[in-house]
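#random but structural
TW: two for the price of one
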Amino acid sequence: MLSVMAPGPTEHDLNDPASPSAGADEPGSSVDPHHPRPQLTRPDWVDLCGPWDFAFDDDGVGIAQLWHRTGGDPFDRVIQVPFPFESPASGIGDTGFHPVVWYRRTFTVTGRPGHRVLLHFGAVDYRAHVWVNGAAVAFHEGGNTPFTADITSALDASGTQTVVVRAEDSPWDLRQPRGKQDWQREAHAIWYDRTSGIWQPVWLEHVPDVRIRTLRWAPNADARSVTMTVRVRADRRDALRLRVVLTQRGKVLADDTYAVDHAELQRTITLTENDMSLGHSDLLWSPEHPNLIEAELTLIEGGEVLDRVGSYTAVRSISASHDRLLLNGRPYFLRLVLAQGFWPESHLAAPDADALRREVELVKELGFNGVRLHQKVEDPRFLAWCDRLGVLVWAEMPAAYEFSPMTIQRLTREWLEILERDASHPCVIAWVPINESWGVPALERSTAQQDLVRSLYHLTKAIDPDRLVIGNDGWEQPVTDVVTVHDYTSRGAVLRQRYGDWEKLEHTLTRTQPAYRVVLLEGAAREGTPVLISEFGGISLDLDDRHGWRGYGAVRNADQLVQGYTDLVTALLDSPAVVGFCWTQLTDTQQERNGLLTAERQPKAAMERIRAVTTRVAAAVPGDAIDEFSYGDYAPGMLES
């Protein structure tokens, strides 16, 4: 049982009925809108977000003065976790340089025999040390990926526990993956105010000693099967069994039990067909038919249930062949929008769980079937809503900006953690380790930098061979599954001249240099590789007249925005030679005023006008299905079920 004293500024009531855990869905439900780890859920968890004590440590004296123990009381203010101190939502709103910060929270937890207490962090940018009651319980480097501390042995017998976090995030270290976070004091050009320290949920979980540690799903659409890889923590496994029940809309697709002979169990489960009468398999997932399969996994020993978790998966394939992208074996046209995932009030942290859902709904309502997450590793709850509502995702590694051995180590380590975290989401169809040669500025002429891009590509393919990998998005591509081009011309006629047919496309790829960069490096495969314009548009409409950055051209009103959007988008839709596009961008972001929506997520032009253009038939895939999504089609409560 998790329990605590009455909450104060540094205390948390784990029995508060308003806590998300109290209303969380039962295991097996495909989406719990509050759970910070939606693909491996248990009901016994508690949200630790909210007020924490906070202190800046600009002089770097905190460790020497034992701030993690009893060294005075330097915590002179309160911060609202998980919002970065730079953001207004944190209650601090200081965008200055503070490379080291500290957090403290007191709570009460009483354990029970045969169980452990785990403390989870969704993400802490960039380097985190964690203590509980003065004992070191975790260290993690990497600002975008989760980590967990087993705090059981550090718990005080009195029940009152204090967790302290030291977060170090250098504003100036360009060898550190930082994405669009600015290294200058004021946000400039296309970079934004920083997101330092804790910026994704912090939560406690009570788990059995013998438990499911990790779970990964890999679908095989041709075989109508899913492969499950489960890691189990158990000292003895001679009598341990794992029961797996897969269901879809109440119908049991599989109910299998396996002996757990090793710490890792991998099994392929063949699924029964549900209904073929609609012309597509109900088992297959796509943006038009986001069919999820709910999963419940139970560890059993001698008839006793030791652990039970809820999850979900889907059957979906993505591939590139003969100049086309194939979704579930059929040609498919990608209509992507670039998303920065930045909110004025909370920066890279979402204002709340509902904001993540609404972001996905907005993508759908504008007519897009996918989103390119640009220079950000998004909250897993966002990906869960993409899974649920049907939005394809291009996932991208936040860039470092200096090439060095340290950069290579940091990029590779964190990229592997990203792949592990997100590999089971059916919405994710593409991995992008590098964007626009950021961090590899001499890529065209440097063998070492080319080797890094190739290494990241092949490493990603080795871990996840069933998704697309774009080694360096936009230009100077040494290896890729999709040729991607960034082209910010403001005239549709120029796009038609460059990409209007196969001959023009080939000339552009081999002779013309959009953005004054060569598209494919020598030796990069081209024949049969599909081509996608992965950044274009960027038309600015500054409704507030803030005179922000207008790098790709500006218009004065909504009509001109729609005209410009129509001119550019239809130029690509009319081409038989390109397989998709990614419009820049979904929302305004600080000084960038080129969103289809304002920073507050308000449309700059009627959304139905944008949608009508986005969903026009593409010449490259004339028989393509067009999603008819409308949020109004969903009755209240349907999206939470």
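TW: number two ↓
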Amino acid sequence: MKFAVTFEQDEDGYIVVNCPALPGCYSQGKTRGEAVSNIREAIQGYVASLRKHGEPIPS
């Protein structure tokens, strides 16, 4: 399953990543690579929670 994400750099230089299809699913990292790794983990946790609660998974 793939989800689109957006990247922004905050005032402290961190890369902030948002997954618009999953409301409230954000992460960050010191580098783009770290941010990507962190958002993947956040998305996996979000989807696992949806499945656990019988909620639909956005496509």
